[in-house]
Design goal:
This protein is α/β, with parallel strands linked by helices and 271 residues long. It has one domain (23-247): Rossmann fold, CATH 3.40.50. The chain is built from nine helices and eight strands. The termini are far apart.
Length: 271
């Protein structure tokens, strides 16, 4: 059932007539990963007229100790759909098996087609040194697919991407396994949207509360507060720049032909 969480809706700035929206794609291994790690940043884009897409690679069917895997997958997909609606994002549900995500021909083609559907300018993906094997695989898949998706000789159901998008790696769960971030995005203003999205994942919040006494919302606030404290803001999300060809830089967060702005803090800005 839908969450009862209440929040102040975002204020969206409409695009000017004829203006082409910036396209943002977040690729995650499981339902709720995006909400935990980059939803506040996505909300900044969405309020400025960007077209945001969330691609979830697996069904998340290992997320319950009481329901069948099929029922868990059904519940989690419905939760992901509701969370995407909070943001006004498109959702791509790629249907792979939870816990068994690998970089192979089949999954590469799935991620290539996700990129081709979304045609993104900017991509967010899991850090390749994340604690979870599905997360690591998702990061590797995205890194490979961003180049392959542009190649016209690789024919799939969708047209090649117009460009090789900028790639940023999301923070890791409670910062385990990640190197020091390159940049932080102040998400204090968009935190209510991030919270509302995560609150839609009722099954996971209930399960964690039963196991530990607190839900994923509490865990997410702790991480956002920790990252915020590193750059003297209340809440922040942290990212690493992908150091692979073609190179990505911090300035690629906001394409130069757009009017996008993000409240970014970087290593250089803290010096």
């Amino acid at each position: 059932m839908p969450s009862r969480y209440q929040y102040v809706p975002l204020t969206y700035v409409p695009l000017a007539e004829g203006e082409i929206p910036v396209r943002i794609l977040a690729i995650s291994a499981h339902p709720d990963d995006v909400e935990l790690l980059c939803a506040g940043t996505l909300a900044h884009y969405a309020t400025q007229g960007a077209e945001v897409t969330v691609a979830v690679l697996t069904n998340g069917e290992l997320g319950s100790r009481t329901l069948s895997r099929a029922e868990t997958a059904r519940v989690r997909q419905a939760e992901a759909e509701r969370a995407a609606r909070v943001l006004g994002a498109n959702l791509l549900w790629l249907g792979q098996q939870d816990g068994f995500l690998f970089d192979n021909s089949e999954t590469r083609l799935l991620v290539i087609d996700a990129l081709r559907q979304a045609q993104p300018d900017v991509v967010f993906a899991h850090h390749p040194d994340d604690y979870h094997p599905d997360h690591r695989a998702a990061g590797q898949l995205t890194n490979a697919a961003r180049l392959l998706s542009r190649e016209p000789a690789l024919e799939t159901r969708y047209s090649p991407t117009r460009r090789v998008p900028a790639l940023f790696f999301m923070d890791t769960f409670m910062t385990e396994g990640s190197a020091r971030p390159d940049l932080w995005v102040d998400v204090t203003v968009t935190m209510p949207c991030k919270e509302a999205m995560l609150a839609e994942h009722i099954s996971q919040n209930d399960a964690r509360r039963a196991r530990t006494g607190s839900d994923f919302l509490a865990l997410m606030r702790t991480q956002a507060s920790l990252r915020g404290g590193q750059v003297d803001v209340r809440y922040a999300e942290a990212f690493r720049v992908a150091r692979t060809y073609p190179p990505t830089s911090i300035t690629d967060l906001t394409p130069p032909d757009s009017n996008m702005t993000l409240p970014v803090r970087s290593v250089s800005s803290r010096a």
